[in-house]
Amino acid sequence: MTADTVGGVWTYALELVRALAPFGTRVALATMGAPLAAHQWEQAEALPNLTIYESSYRLEWMNEPWDDVAAAGEWLLQLEAQVQPDLVHLNGLVHGALPWQRPVLAVVHSCVLSWWQAVKGEDAPEIWATYRRLVRQGLQAADAVVAPTGAMLRAAQELYGPFQQSAVIHNGASPQAFRPVTKEPFIFGMGRVWDEAKNLALLAQAAAGLPWPVYLAGDARHPATGQVLELPNVHFLGQLPASEVKHWLARASIYALPARYEPFGLSFLEAALAGCALVAGDIASLREVWGAAACYVPPQDAAALHNTLFSLIEGESVRLNAAARAQTRALQYTLARQVEEYGRLYQQLALVPSTTGLASTTSP
User: Fold this and answer.
1) At the topology level of CATH, where does 2-170+336-350 sit?
2) Considering Cα of 356, then 359, then 360, then 362, what sign does the dihedral take?
3) Mean pLDDT by 10 residues, the chain (364 residues)
4) Span 175-333: which CATH code?
5) CA 66 to CA 157: how far, in whole Å?
C-alpha cells in the first residue's frame, strides 16, 4: 500500500491497516511526500501487522514533481519485488500504469482537476496538462478504481475514464473512538483557514455576532505571507494531535465546515459520532453521505451560514435533534463495513491475472 504523510490519507491508511489486522492481513506501507513525524512513527509502531517503508518523494500534486514521481515508481517496483505482495493498493493516482506483477487497486481520495473545478469554478490551467495525462494513464491501467463517494467517482470518470472496474467504498470510523461528553456552548471546525476547499474563512467571517464562540483547529498563519488572522469571536487552536481533536469534538455542540470541495469528509463523520450537530457546505458529496442528517449552506453565503448557526444555537431541541440524526447516520459508516467491502474487492482482484503494465509508463 502507498500513502502520503502530509494529508488525510495517512489516517485512512492506518485505520484500514488496523481494521485488517484481525484477518491476518499484513501491510507493507510505502510512504511519500515527507518523512514521518515522531507521532506518526508512534502510530505506525502500534500496529503489529504494519511494516513502514519510508521515502520523501514529492507527490504528483506538488510543484515540479515529475522526476520524483518517476524515481518513486522505480522504488515501488523494487519494493514489490522484495515484498512479494498479493495485491498493490495505491492511494496515489499516477503509479497504476507501472509494470506491476500483481493486481492493482487505485483509490481516488481527491484530485487537482476536480478540486479546481469545485473551488475555482473553471477547468485547471494548462500547467496541469502533464498531471492530467499521467493520472489518466495511471487510473485507466489499474485493475480497479475506488472512490469514497459516488460524487468523487463520477468526477474521476469524467476527467480520467473509462476505468476497467470501479467501486464506491465509503470511508469509515470506529464509533468507540468518538464518544460525546457533556456538550458545551461552542462551535468547532477543522482545517487550514487559508484552504479554499475547506472554506473556513467563511466560517470565520460568519462567527462575528454569534452568541457562541468558534474554535478552529488548524493553522491561522498564511503559508506564503506569514500573516496571522485575528478575527472577532474566533479562537485558533493551531495544529492539534488526534487525541486533542477527539477531546474538542466530544465537547463541541456544533461542527461546522462550509466546504466547497470535500470528496468524503472524514471530519464530519468523527464529529457526528461525537454527538455534534453538523453544518456543511451544500455540495453533492456531502449530500450523498449525510442526506437529511446535516444542515447545508451555500459555500459562498456567509449570511446563510451565520443564520443557520444562530438558529441551532437558539433552538436547543432543533440542535439536539440534528445531532441525534447525524449520530444515527454516522453509524452506517463503520470501519467494519469499510474493511469488509475492501476485503471483498481485494479477494476478487487477487484471484484474477493483473492487466496493469499494458498502458504507457508514468515517465512524463
Assistant:
1) Rossmann fold (3.40.50)
2) negative
3) 92 95 96 94 96 97 96 98 97 98 97 97 97 98 98 98 97 92 96 86 92 90 63 87 92 98 96 98 98 97 97 98 98 96 95 49 31
4) 3.40.50.2000
5) 23
